[in-house]
Amino acid sequence: MTYANMKLNQYQQVNNQSAEYADPHRLIQMLMEGFITRTAEAKAAMERGDINAKNTAVKKACGILHGLLDSLDFDKGGELASNLASMYFYQEKTLLLGHSRNEPEKLDEVMRLMREVKAGWDGIRDQAASEPDQRQTPPPESVGSISVSG
């Protein structure tokens, strides 16, 4: 089981979907959704003064960010992976700052950033689904003819 799978199982499978059977793209979506959910929980706990719930939610949100960081492939992802890593580190720093100072607007900021990244990630799946399958067999006119005369 991958690190992302373990993190997802730890956070009680976002959207009631079993992470063990999700494809890699869906696992990342689930991590992003989990981060947004946990950060919203932290904000709600902050606003009602529930320190224990806030601490728990922030800890889980940070764990999810680490899962997202661990999922990055810097060899294949290049600059994009580096940019995402920088953003995840920024989100963690901002989340912890908002947590320690009880500033809900900091939590709003990191949720907004994650929603933007998630929208792009979701678009990758949508784009892939709308493109023709490159593994299809070529159309008949592009296949050479064979003469079977006797």
Automatic annotation (TrEMBL):
Region listing for Disordered, in residue ranges: 122-150
Main localization, broad class: cytoplasm
Gene Ontology CC annotations of this record: cytosol
Keywords: Bacterial flagellum biogenesis, Cell projection, Chaperone, Cilium, Cytoplasm, Flagellum
Keyword Cytoplasm: yes
Pfam families (alphabetical): FliS
Record-linked InterPro entries: FliS, FliS_sf
Family matches, as Gene3D superfamilies: Flagellar protein FliS
GO BP term, pick one: bacterial-type flagellum assembly
Keyword presence, Cytoplasm: yes
CDD domains documented for this protein: FliS
SUPFAM superfamilies attached to this UniProt entry: Flagellar export chaperone FliS (SSF101116)
Compartment list: Cytoplasm, Cytosol
UniProt similarity note: Belongs to the FliS family.
Protein name: Flagellar secretion chaperone FliS
